[in-house]
Amino acid sequence: MSTASASLEVSGLAFAYPDGHQALFGVDFSIARGERVALLGPNGAGKTTLVLHLNGILSGGVGSVRVAGLPVDRKNMAEIRRKVGIVFQDPDDQLFMPTVREDVAFGPAAAGIKGTDLEERVDRALGQVGMQEFKDRPPHHLSFGQRRRVAVATVLAMEPEILVLDEPSSNLDPASRRELADILRSLDVTVLMVTHDLPYALELCPRSLILSEGTIAADGPTGELLSDDGLMRAHRLELPFGFDPRSVTMGA
Amino acid sequence: MGAGHAHRLYRHGHSPVHALPPHAKLAATFAFVVVVVSTPRAAMWAFGLYAVLLALVAYAARVPAGFLLKRLLIEVPFVAFAVLMPFVAEGERVEVLGMSLSVNGLWGAWNVLAKGTLGVAASVLLASTTELRELLLGLQRLKLPPLLVQIASFMIRYGDVITDEMRRMRIARESRGFEAKGVRHWGVLAKSAGALFIRSYERGERVHLAMVSRGYAGSMPVIDEVTASRAQWSYALALPFAALVVCVLGWTL
Amino acid sequence: MHVPDGFIDAPTSVATGVAAAAAVAVSLRGARRELDERTAPLAGLVAAFIFAVQMLNFPVAAGTSGHLLGGALAAILVGPYTGALCISVVLLMQGVLFADGGLTALGVNITNMAVVGVVVAYAVFRLLVKVLPRTRGSITAASFVAALVSVPAAALAFTFLFWIGGTTDVSIGKVATAMVGVHLLIGIGEAAITALTVGAVIAVRPDLVYGARDLRRPLKLRVGDELVDAPAPAAGQPAAARASRRTLWIGGLVTSLVLAGFVSFYASASPDGLEKVAEDKGFAESAEEHATADSPLADYGVKDIDNARLSGGLAGVIGVGVTVVAGSAVFWAVRRRRTDEGADTSPTSAGV
User: Fold this and answer.
1) Is some CB atom of chain B closer than 8 A to the CB atom of A105?
2) Residue C190 phi, psi dihedral angles, 5° rounding
3) Mean pLDDT of C262-271
4) CA distances to A247, C188, C192 from C60, in Å
5) Nearest 5 degrees, angle CA A134-CA A139-CA A141?
6) Which residue, A48, A151, C57, C150, could crosslink A91 as a Cys pair with Cβ 3.0–4.6 Å?
């Protein structure tokens, strides 16, 4: 995992919110190009805070973040935000435009793409998540699973270097969950998936990081981490009843 | 979620009025109301003609009279004000049914009622034939500051989401046996309002994050533009022009 | 309080429309300075909040209930510029989407509720916060008084516009008494709700209350076992702010001049509906009665000037001039206080 080929490099990152609550206490890790990595951790471990550092939305703490070798700072910001596509947990936050089409077009249009190129990007991104026929619908008329898929499309339309998903499986029914997994597997990008849905992590990501109390507590193959009972218990991670990570063949 | 109350007035349809471009409709409605307000109140017949003009538009837009009339109820508080006018206004007085009423006040009441009613009716026609999104595009096209239009569209986009949150908070309060009956419960309600503000503000921050994550740097990319042909403009402006003729006649006759 | 069409005559509607547009332009700039590129989503969400919270019923007694108007609340929570902007947007959308408030009266409504309501509330609030000890209780108390004053102030502003451009010859004293009386009562409710709501927000997220920025403490970070000071967020752009204040001033001055000219032209050159009727009915007679009416403002039809229309026009011009000057003075005072503080409070309420 040399520095040159890393999609993402985080070192010594610490951060506290304006209300005084400190969420990160020195985080270090790196992700190579093309990897699919899960970031696991209990509620309040600082996962979302970490994600917001990846494209420079949060800053002002100490430490550094590099995306494809580029440091995340004010002067690279536009570039960084094109390269890091974040899909937020609540699709209502992500889908802020009046129609699906405009929402998916927002990112590329902000990057200066116009006309037929723009339409093509929108169609391709919606095609990747199977939502073409909802193009002209307002987002609040879609089901939750559909909104989540459109949210993924809004980011894919920007053709990012790394796709960051914050709790992608939350609030999805099993069928929507399955469909989203298929979509994610079909994509050819680096993925960082923040989740506490452990089977989902095992299914999609060969490697996992455990973030606990604002630091990286473990880093290794997902199957091994999930099989380490002591580690799991120490960081309040629990597998669903009857789920045995050793008996699952990974689809990675 | 529901259809959302944020645009209760819109009636889906395919009438010629629905098909007009939104900025032309906005401009026409606004011009019409300005003309109505500028009409001398003594020209009572002119207001009758305005009403006929609006009725024609409503007919063309297939907006039923009942719908239009129901919406006029919004005026009620001001009707009360208008009714008081003849009693409190200054000037010459007349005896009506044994009550001493101010002539000026009567005219004033008539003026407010006639113009206010026509104004509300015109706005209702606009809102019932124009989709929300179109209205926003229309405002944008009419050169309102882009930031203002953006704020308005965020307000519309999230109006439903937030009222929905407010509804859920009420259900949560009521499920725990709380029912606001009087002033002593205001503290609890205000706490809900405060929580709602925090949630709204935080959501605003999250929406902003989602926006900047996709390259937003202060201005919205233009994705759609609305345009109006000359013919469409002339259809839309037929209303205020007809009204203008009536108004001019009102001043000269 | 949404004024419909026809209450205020056309020239005054146009003049207030221009004034409202100028105020919205000023608050757009101000909001931009307060919120940066976060303006659109944050102001949009706050507008949506105001819109929603206006529908929250506060039961009074026996089936009656009140609700929040929100001007003071917006001013205290998000600051005067963003507050005025949000209320303006709510009014605009209510006018266009719900036929709530006349389209021609939009200027009047924005001027009363978004400008006078918000600015008065914020001015009172800041003044009290300066005077009172620096505690959360003072913020709540100041919120109460600010909301209490702002509602009748907006009502008074309406009365004033009604006096200039009202379409009915009602004794202005009576209108003022009635409006202020009724709105003082409404103001008490507004004050209680505003203070309670501000108190509720302060208890949980004091950093979100614009009016309570003074209460913040510097941030500490724990890395490993050490406590480190968080790097101070980059200071704002005071130079740019100063330059833009000058353009703002010049803009405001030009606007008020144009406005004054406009109103005087209309008020004196074109007789409005009221005056035409007055002429038909014999103006002299009613003008005399008018002058003898014993309300303090009824004799504004200046005695020394024979031509009643001209004197009415003059009074209008003077009135508008006074509003503009008073309005800009308040704005200026508030801005000045703000930029003074800008130095020690972090302007990017987080680079967040």
Assistant:
1) yes
2) -55, -40
3) 39
4) 64, 12, 12
5) 85
6) A151
CA-based radius of gyration for chain C: 22
Convert the pLDDT of each residue in C32-42 to its tens digit: 888 877 788 88
Domains annotated for chain A, with CATH where assigned, are 3-239 (3.40.50.300)
Q: Judge whether A98 is closer than 8 Å to chain C, CB to CB.
A: no
| pTM for this prediction | 0.76
The CA distance from A197 to the nearest CA of chain B, in Å, is 23
Q: Across the strands, what pairs with C26?
A: none
- Closest to B144 measured CA to CA, from C108, C37, C113, C85: C85
Q: What is the pLDDT of residues B31-68, one digit of tens each?
A: 999 999 888 888 888 899 999 999 999 999 888 888 88
- Asked if residue C224 is part of any domain, the answer here is no
Other CB atoms within a 10 A radius of the CB of residue C280 amount to: 11
Which residues in C lie closer than 8 A to residue B76 (C-beta atoms)?
Answer: none
Tokens of A152: 């993924």
C351 belongs to a structural domain: no
**One-letter amino acid for residue B41 of the chain:** R
Domain housing C285? 10-219+242-342
> Phi-psi region for residue A213, left (φ > 0), alpha (ψ -120 to 50) or beta?
left
B62, B16 Cβ separation under 8 angstroms: no
Retrieve residue C128's tokens: 């009290």
Half-sphere exposure of C271 (CA within 13 A, CB side): 16
Element (H, E) at A11: strand A6-16
Kindly state whether C61 is in contact with chain A, defined as any CB-CB distance less than 8 angstroms.
Answer: no
Q: How many structural domains comprise chain C?
A: 1
Q: Which run of H or of E encompasses C2? A: none
Q: Which residue has the higher pLDDT, C229 or C111?
A: C111
Give the gyration radius of chain B's Cα atoms: 23
Q: With beta carbons under 8 A apart, name residues in chain B contacting A103.
A: none
Tell me whether residue C247 is in a domain: yes
Of the candidates C156, C162, C176, C85, the residue with the CA atom closest to the CA atom of residue C122: C85
Structure tokens belonging to residue B249: 């006649």
**What does the pLDDT read at residue B147?**
87
Q: What is the ipTM of this complex?
A: 0.87
* Cβ neighbours of residue C42 closer than 8 Å, sequence gap 6 or more: B201, B204, B205, B208, C35, C78, C82
Burial class of residue B35 (count of CB atoms within 10 Å of its CB; 0-12, 13-18, 19+): buried
Q: What is the mean pLDDT of residues C48-64?
A: 79
Going by pLDDT thresholds of 50, 70 and 90, the confidence category of residue C306 is: very low
Distances (CA, A) of B54 to A76, B51, B57: 57, 5, 5
pLDDT tens-digit series, residues A81-115:
888 999 988 888 889 888 899 899 998 888 888 88
Distance CA B141, CA B157 (A): 19
Q: Report DSSP state, residue C44.
A: H
- Per the listing, tokens 């994705």 go with B223
How many percent of chain B have pLDDT more than 90?
7
Average pLDDT for A5-14: 89
SS3 of A89, please? coil
Predicted pLDDT at C259: 46
For A142-192, the three-class secondary structure string (H helix, E strand, C coil) is: CCHHHHHHHHHHHHHCCCCCEEEEECCCCCCCHHHHHHHHHHHHHCCCEEE
Distances (CA, A) of B79 to B114, C32, C183: 10, 40, 18
Q: Which residues pair with C99 in a beta bridge?
A: none
For residue C160, the domain's CATH number is 1.10.1760.20
Residue B214 CB neighbour total at 10 angstroms: 28
- Whether B222 sits inside 8 A of A109 (CB atoms) is yes
Structure tokens at C252: 């405001």
- Residue C96 sits at the chain A interface (C-beta within 8 Å): no
Among A11, A17, A19, A215, most C C-beta atoms within 10 A, so best to mutate, is A19
Mean pLDDT of all residues in A141-151: 90
